[in-house]
Amino acid sequence: MGLRLRQARECSRGSMTHVFHRQLKAAMPVAAKGDGPYIVDTEGKKYIDASGGAAVSCLGHSHPRVIQAIKDQVDQIAFAHTGFFTSEPAEQLADHLVSRAPGQINHVYFVSGGSEAVEASLKLARQYFLEKGEGQRSLFIARRQSYHGNTLGALSVGGNEWRRTPFAPMLIDAEHVSPCYGYRDRQPDESDEAYGLRVADELESRLKEVGPEKVIAFVAEPVVGATAGALAPVPGYFKRIREICDKNGILLILDEVMCGMGRTGTLFACEQDGVAPDLLATAKGLGAGYMPIGAMMCTSEIYDTIRNGSGFFQHGHTYMGHPTACAAALAVQRAIEEDDLLANVRTMGDKLDAALHDRLGNHANIGDIRGRGLFRGIELVADRVSKEPLDPGLKIDGLIKREAMERGLICYPGGGTIDGKQGNHVLLAPPFIINETHVAEITEKLGDSIEAALRAAGVA
Ligand code: PMP
């Protein structure tokens, strides 16, 4: 092994390395091998991947048919720029997605990840109105508890203050309304349905205030991931949102980057809410981490308006529609259907939910256990009655992550802003291939990790 490579490997476990990730001070294990739902590091330690990284690895880490599809594609051609060519994998993947997509969604634009898919959605929505002669529209309305990506447009519609604040002077025009957060906001005497309508109607009030003719779209995650921990809407909420968008002539953009592609038990999360968007962004589970890929999908109305107008979408990236990425994603999506994995997502999702309630449901610092399918969140609180978040100074998310990694568990602790304070949850998004033994392993290790982290923080 060359000296520089050896140094790099040694450095990557310590404080000095030439690569840098988000946490500049963290010494991380080196991932060496994938084995179904497990990652094995260079020391031979095994980690059960209960969050698929950040809800990415929905087929686990060693799926033979996906690996073969990538090899086969590279043998044919690795790359052809979409300024010159389309490719068979891109065409087939688009057919696969469109034939299963909700509502009038009929066209797909491939990109390399979630932020790019959201960014492209924002720009396509703006260009749609421009081509209709409505260039006065420049505002988006989104929700406070939301994450839509880290590029500047996506960050602008995202509602997380901690992520937005450093870049505030660089962001585009976006307003934020309340999320549908029944655990925190539903009044004791209010039904789920009444709460859903009340919170959806905030969009209508905001539209009145700002003038609907200035607004391009409402942007939301059907099931909120990184900023709220698998927060699903109450029944009727999104139907009302759809009505408000239609009545006011604005578009509905659904961000299914995290919750889509089967994660909640249906291919598209919005199917369970009985709504279809005008634009839909998806990524993570689309390629399951085998290749970087995302997609923006849109209705014929939007596509035809631009095709019959300028005929050119003023936005693009070098790697969009990458044939190898599309071949990988097609193999992932076919495996999900051939192996009936959405049925497993629903069954194992119910079992995981029950196991989490058994293990943690009565814990003094667990406020809520929620989610759909294999997308589950556990919200931590200082007090179950007041629902007061834990002191952010305790940095409980870092402690949970550390305890979990020590126990060979990958989970995704995080938090959104609750009443000006950072809240805390742990997100679980294990691969669709897990069985009951994996559910038990995840639940035990997570329960132990949370308890150890709370003890280390001096809370329990
Ligand atoms: N939207 C949502 C809902 C997400 O969860 C994420 C990633 N966590 C993104 C957008 C951004 O995706 P990416 O990190 O692939 O750019």
Q: How would you portray this structure in words?
A:
- Keywords: Aminotransferase, Pyridoxal phosphate, Transferase.
- This is Adenosylmethionine-8-amino-7-oxononanoate aminotransferase.
- Belongs to the class-III pyridoxal-phosphate-dependent aminotransferase family.
- Its cofactor is pyridoxal 5'-phosphate.
- The protein has a seven-stranded mixed β-sheet with strand order 4-10-9-8-7-5-6, with helices on both faces.
- The model has no long low-confidence stretch (mean pLDDT 95).
- The protein has helices at 3-11, 52-55, 64-76, 88-98, 114-131, 152-157, 161-164, 182-185, 192-210, 237-248, 284-287, 300-308, 323-338, 341-360, 396-406, 436-456; strands at residues 31-35, 38-41, 46-49, 105-111, 139-143, 174-177, 215-220, 251-256, 279-282, 294-299, 366-372, 375-380, 409-410, 412-414, 417-418, 421-422, 424-428.
- 39% of the residues lie in helices and 17% in strands.
- It is built from 16 helices and 17 strands.
- The chain is of the alpha/beta class and 460 residues long.
- α10 (237-248) links the parallel β7 (215-220) and β8 (251-256).
- Bound molecules: 4'-deoxy-4'-aminopyridoxal-5'-phosphate.
- 4'-deoxy-4'-aminopyridoxal-5'-phosphate is lined by residues 54, 113-115, 118, 147-149, 221, 225-226, 255, 257-258, 283.
Précis, in short:
The protein has 460 residues and is α/β, with parallel strands linked by helices.
Tell how many strands the DSSP assignment holds.
17
Poorly predicted residue ranges? none
Strand proportion: 15-25%
The geometry reads as globular
Taking all Cα atoms into account, the compactness measure Rg is: 22 Å
Q: If you consult CATH, what is the topology of the largest domain?
A: Aspartate Aminotransferase, domain 2
